[in-house]
Amino acid sequence: MSSTGPYESKRQLVAEFQNLEQEDAILAEYVWIDGSMENVRSKTRTLRSSKPITDPTTLPEWNFDGSSTGQAPGHDSEVILKPATIFKDPFRRGNNILVLCECYTPQGEPLPSNTRAHAKEVFEKVASHHPWFGLEQEYTLFDTKTNWPLGWPTNGYPGPQGPYYCSAGAENSFGRDL
């Protein structure tokens, strides 16, 4: 068991740091998709402002070593982070923010992992058609005793998805109280 000094638990230690007075400091967590296009990376920059920051164009660009994230060769590894959008940081109190970023070469070319830049280019070409895209999240809850999806028959598989796809009602939707 590791020692946390005068703190009773790691949670207490974390809480102590989370509750430090920040005065006019804003922690901006720059977030981007790495070269695998399967993982996100981030690093934190401290900014000075007495007011909340809501406009990504007011944020400074930043850089990182792309050879460590699969986004650049070792001999030419600088990658530029350009802020694209801002969200209030749900994990930190105060005016701290999450900054979703796009990745570019120092010459201003979007990296292959920068799919936002490609999507923007395509959308601008067909703007008169009012294109849009949506994200769909699906979840499967598992019974902790059987390791079987919640609501599935104990000794088999459920019927076709028709009755319970986007359904309502206790007979078709399981785990809603969670």
TrEMBL record:
GO terms for biological process: glutamine biosynthetic process. This is glutamine synthetase. It comes from Palpitomonas bilix. One of its GO terms (molecular function) is ATP binding. Residues 43-75 are annotated as: Disordered. The keyword Ion transport does not apply. It is found in: Cytoplasm. Gene3D superfamilies: Glutamine synthetase, N-terminal domain, Glutamine synthetase/guanido kinase, catalytic domain. Belongs to the glutamine synthetase family. Its EC number is 6.3.1.2. Its main location: cytoplasm. Residues 26-108 form the GS beta-grasp domain. InterPro entries: Gln_synt_N (IPR008147), Gln_synt_N_sf (IPR036651), Gln_synth/guanido_kin_cat_dom (IPR014746), Gln_synth_N_conserv_site (IPR027302), Glutamine_Synthetase (IPR050292). GO terms for cellular component: cytoplasm. Keywords: ATP-binding, Cytoplasm, Ligase, Nucleotide-binding. PANTHER family: GLUTAMINE SYNTHETASE, GLUTAMINE SYNTHETASE CYTOSOLIC ISOZYME 1-1.
